[in-house]
Design a protein that fits this description.
168 residues; alpha+beta; five-stranded antiparallel β-sheet; 5 strands; 35% helix; globular; disordered N terminus
């Protein structure tokens, strides 16, 4: 995964058993976010379209993936990164006042994350060059997810990705 070369990941050495959610210092903030905004695995969570909402969305994704669904850190890491990318696009490119975040478990061992915003402007997967410092969001979504797409809605769009969790 980008940015983690050379970082030891103990969960990769443990065989087939997945690590379960273990509380940490960041979990207090994640639990506060869950209490304040709601659980995106139960219903769509509305967040203000501000840069700091990416951190809130990451915390919500972490607590849902690891605590609610019981997946390990590697799956959580991928989901959190991709949530951050879709939320970043919604905040930067839509001009909206708010966006929605929804997370669901699907048949076939998949996690699906939806980010809904009121803009009908479609995201565009751009070619990425080695020295690019921005514009890599959808490239990461393309590489790390099993499927992703955009559904146009009567008032806006829903950008989503799915990750298969049974084989990881």
């Amino acid at each position: 995964m980008a940015g983690l070369d050379g970082v030891e990941r103990p969960w990769e050495h443990g065989g087939a058993t997945a690590a379960r959610w273990v509380p940490s210092a960041d979990d207090e903030q994640a639990l506060k976010a869950l209490e304040m905004y709601g659980d995106p695995s139960v219903d769509e969570v509305r967040l203000p379209s501000r840069p700091e909402s990416a951190a809130i969305a990451r915390r919500l994704a972490q607590i849902v993936v690891m605590r609610t669904w019981g997946f390990g850190p590697q799956i959580a890491e991928d989901v959190i990164l991709l949530v951050s990318e879709l939320v970043g696009n919604a905040v930067r490119h839509t001009g909206a006042r708010a966006f929605g975040l929804r997370m669901t478990r699907r048949r076939g061992g998949r996690i699906r994350v939806d980010v809904r915003d009121p803009s009908r402007g479609l995201p565009c997967l751009m070619p990425v060059r080695p020295l690019d410092v921005s514009g890599r969001g959808l490239f990461l979504v393309e590489k790390l997810s099993d499927r992703w797409g955009v559904d146009l809605l009567p008032r806006g769009k829903n950008t989503w990705f799915e990750i298969r969790v049974t084989d990881r």
